[in-house]
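pasting for the record
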Amino acid sequence: MSALRISVVICAYTEERWDDVHAAVASVRGQEHPAEEIIVVVDHNPALHARLKRSLADAVVVENREGRGLSGGKNTGVAVARGDVVAFLDDDAVAAPGWLAGMARHYADPRVAGVGGLTLPLWPGSTTSAELVAAPVPAATGTRPGWFPEEFDWTVGCTYRGLHPGPVRNVMGGNASFRREMFPLAGGFDSRIGRTFHKRPLGCEETEFCIRLRQRCPDAELLYDDEAVIWHRVPPLRARFAYFRQRCYAEGLSKALVTASVGSADGLSSERTHALVTLPRGALRGVTDGLKGDLAGFGRAGAIVLGLAWTAWGYATGLYTARLQARRARRAVAGQGAA
């Protein structure tokens, strides 16, 4: 598929990730399957936009034309893109040289609407972003906290244990690609879902989009390919249990928004399998490791139990809030009708 044109969209928002953004762009420049264009979308930060426009002369640097947040940034990138396929890379990630090639080969099948890849964590102590600008493949990937279970790597934006190559319900947003014609068919990313300027680490904009795409285009196929590899940076703050707990709760809130948009049957289909099969196995594995002398295994088992509980609590809170808001809206409408 050498003729396949792929536009790569990178959404940026803060100057604190200056080296990260440049490392991400450098990794796209070095792809075996050359990118048609690199689009950097800056989220309502004029100073950063001006700086990046000067430093990334070979990239298309634009300002987010929609509301603040990741969904608006992605929609802006799609609107600018010229490629047959639009790929998304996080601004704090670097892509392996075969990343785009791994995705491109699947688009020979016209049924394939989107492809996602394997996202590996760069834990604290890994190769710095400044070094990755010159050599995008990291020499060191840092040290995973002993208590951190692989089943919850999604909390740091990475591929989690239990996800297998092949057809999937949704791909992960920081390592994903879609045929460009899918966006007008399915609609763009929902600005009410996903990361914004809000401090709470919400997500799931790509999950809701993928489900909506499949609902409107039932024959479309989404794939996960573990040969399309990127590395995603995990800053020290996100390697702490406090963030883990906060991210789990926020994921529950986000899933409540997703189910309100696309229904609980599709909105929770993958989560049910993960909660009922993958997580119990992970907890048992952690306890077994602990009994064999790896005491951190008990921590991993405990983190799985607590992570599931906090996610469920967030989901329940999100559902209750949504229903309360809907009830108030109905009362307001009824009050206007009575007047």
